[in-house]
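Can't attach files on this board, so I'm pasting raw text. These are the components:
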Amino acid sequence: MRNLKWIGVALGVLASASAARADGPKELWHYYAAGSEKAGIEALIAFANKQNPDNQIVGKVIPGNAVEMRRQLQTAFMGNTPPAAYQSSMAFELKTFVDSGKLHDLSETWAKIKGDEIFPEGVQRVVKVGGKPYGIPYDLSLINNIFYSKAIFEKAGLQPPKDYEGLVAVCDKLRAAGVEPLGNAGGPFWSLYNFYAPLVSTVGTEGYYKIASGELGFDTPEFRKALELYRDTMVKCYAKNWSGKTWTQTADDVVNGNTGMFMMGAWAAAYFKQAGFAPVEKFDVFPAPGTEGKAIFQMDAFAVPEGPADTLETAEKFVISAASAEGQSTFAVPKGSLAPNVTVDPSIYDAVGAKFAKQLADASKANAVLPNLFFLLPTKVGTELGVQLEKFAIDPSDTNESELISTLESLRQEAQAEGAYLKW
Amino acid sequence: MPSFQFMRRKFQTAGMTHAIFLSLPVTLFAVFYVYPIISTFNLSLHSWDGFSPTPKYVGLQNYIVLAHQSRFYHAVLNNISWLVFLLLGPTSLGLLLAALLDRGMKGQSVFRVVFFLPFTIPAVAVAAIWRWMYEPTSGLLTTILQSIGLGSLAQNWLGDPSIVNFALMGSMLWWTTGFAFLVFFAGLRNIPVEYIEAARIEGATPWQVFWKVSFPLLWPSTIVVLGMAAVDAMRLFDIVWAMTNGGPAYASEVLATQMYDTAFGRFEMGRASAISVYLLVIAGLIIMPYIHQLAKRVQEAEAE
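---
Top answer:
Structure tokens for the assembled complex are below.
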């Protein structure tokens, strides 16, 4: 009897715990675990909670990256316990969840925030699936700029190059001066992001979108030409042993004066600043050759899963706050990223951030804002493109070039047969 | 002589007791082991992104596609390389360290802690430490090699596809040797001193004492260490994923990391399940005869 009583007590505790879980705080899942990005999300949550005292949201870190987030979300969706909102990449990342009916249509919220007016057209198209918005943009970084050390350039009497011949000439001079010319880092993203510049230079903005929609094959002369341009310029410039480094280790090489240039997303600027490497004074940026007047960007948006009415209300109020000019700058300043909302005052940025903001605004006017191709492609094609590009950058042999082309082309055809491609 | 009724009642009561005691472990085993395996096999016959309501049945297509992928065979080969390495590397070094300490050298208790300490560090922390050790320009390893005039031996440790697996194995050696060392050391300490003394009196050299007396008596410890090494080689994931994500360009990929990448990096749950079924079969084929053989030898040794 005594044992039964204890079992009863234990069951009661469990039941109350699960009830508490159901009525628990509304969560925002993200993977900003440390540093400037953690400061950014915490500031944004505090701002939104202050604006919405009756609809508080609590941040929860999912350690890792987009892959870890998918794993957690999958489990949560299976258990019918998704968060109120979460950090999502754009385009195909959203589409997968939309196709399975897991995400809430944000059309009403979009109308309230005037999404079609406050976000550039290139930004809008990667958060809309079937014409409906499913994500609220808030964290944008340009990925088509090359950072350079001003001290190294001044010492070698160099100016930022305007074209590929100029880039190769600068690399040769830096190497002659005993400095590694261009940093890169291991992993499936960084070589791919670097490759976008030669790709856009070769196939143009229209060709870029044609690759994204599967219309332009990987075995076409244009794509091969882009690969060869990449090989003969950037790959030739890469620092020794780049593939064994993380991007922060390569950024350290720039700070320490071992490497002259580094083509990396705008987040590198925040890292440089944290390392005491002041913008404009110690480092500056220039657009990668062939991308002047264009803005290739990586972006995260807030997605809202379907859920109970009160959870949806909290999530919607949160994303409305996050989309406002004040909300966007609350996040962008500590994070060191750009606010996708064009009504945000550019004076919030530092000198380099202001350059990025101007670049985005100019590209937006010229309709030359290009989303990261990785997320425009069906997930398996984008991922394989990243892996194959890294392999090619490590060893740009004819064998690897042929293997890259045949592997990607067969994947493209497979994805097309499955109807996986989408015109963004 | 007990009556038939009494025997039957006793049997029933004992049977009930056994059944009650067994029900919990059997249920746990069925729910958390058997059911996931059956479910995974079922999923491997489908195409599913992990989110859509209904997986699409594709029969054996996932298995056939994998069987035609060089990426898959590369991961299988890597698992086999890891198997060979883990059976030989940490095991031999652990045995050597245990044998050295067992000779009663000075500062034994300090060395015991030093040798075992790395094994207490979580895999992700080990990966973070070695990620910095292996930094190819100014990492500790490269710096040491340069400072002793062997800079030409410094490599692009984690970035060169032909080097990366050896580099990963180096960090694994540092991390797991402590376990083999501890088991062997405990085994050596359990060997009756009389046996060693008797061999010495008979004129055996220390070398002979170790190989003819100590080592055969260490067989139960060896089984534990080798068995764990074989299982570790097949389920290897954390250290590879945390250090290289299976890269560069699949060079260090093993089946478990390929499965994870396929499932959550590419939303191909069915194909990832097929990889896990292949892994189960390969692990079974490699490990089971070995475990069976080793267990048989233990039984024989105990019978003697």
